[in-house]
Amino acid sequence: MGSFEVSETARLDHCMEAFLARPGACKLYYCIDDFTDPWREPPTVLFVHGLAESGEAWRAWVPHFARQYRVVRVDVRGFGRSTPMPAEYNWTMHALLDDFVALIHHLGCERVHLIGAKSGGSMALKLAADYPQLVQTLVGVTPPVVGPQAASGWLTDIEQHGMLDWARHTMQGRLGSKVPQAEVDWWVNNIQSKTAVSTMQGYLRWVPGLDIRADVERIACPTLIFTTTGSGLRTVDSVMGWQSKIRNSKLIVLESDAWHAAGALPDQCAKAALEFIGRQR
Q1: Based on the structure, what is the number of domains in the chain?
Q2: Is the pLDDT confidence value at 33 over 80?
Q3: Domain that holds residue 50
Q4: Residue 122 pLDDT greater than 50, yes or no
Q5: At 16, which CATH number?
Q6: Does the global pTM surpass 0.85?
Q7: What is the pLDDT of residue 233?
Q8: How many C-beta atoms lie closer than 10 Å to residue 241's C-beta?
Q9: Residue 39 is assigned to a structural domain of this protein
Q10: What local confidence, expressed as pLDDT, does residue 12 receive?
């Protein structure tokens, strides 16, 4: 699993930012928000973001969770404040999961409530399948089980025009037609465009080959999946095709044309996820 060396950048009673050293000179950034009663030992919720994002993508979810849970938001390797990956880096699901397992152990958790969105949801699904002893409940918000074939086109656009131009042309599809332009601009300028091009070069060569359809059938923990009705990326029936094979799972279908429901509908999703996790406790 590599080193557990930690460098803390800031600490308050209720908030902490830190880096966890990982193999290959990678430092994994994470932050903790904990507004629970200080005399309690709260359960932990680990949030995993999607492509070209950071833990900041979960900003609107934190107030819903942080009064009852220790909220941990990790920047996936290569993204956010974690170390950028070189273009030739050999991306594997195994390495990504190893990072999360190391972080869970470092946090001193026996098990976590795991929440992932988009490709972070794919990672969360695979983590729950491969490490059932670490995951108490699982929430996947519009997670793909097969890698996007559009990734090769995205890679060409990014290499020719840069991250900011790519983010401007794809963000509206993520958030859908109902969000204001100011919100789209915030995601473009503060999150999507901040990813290193070298990270995207390696990641987008790897992700089209992702296929975890057989893995999800091994998920044993209580699972909640969100999908939307009109995103254009996948149909409700196609999601039900694999979600129904998770034996202890529930599907929530949101009326929306966004394919990033965690970002476009954070309050609605967070409240439903909070209720679901609470029932399992």
Answers
A1: 1
A2: yes
A3: 6-280
A4: yes
A5: 3.40.50.1820
A6: yes
A7: 77
A8: 13
A9: yes
A10: 52
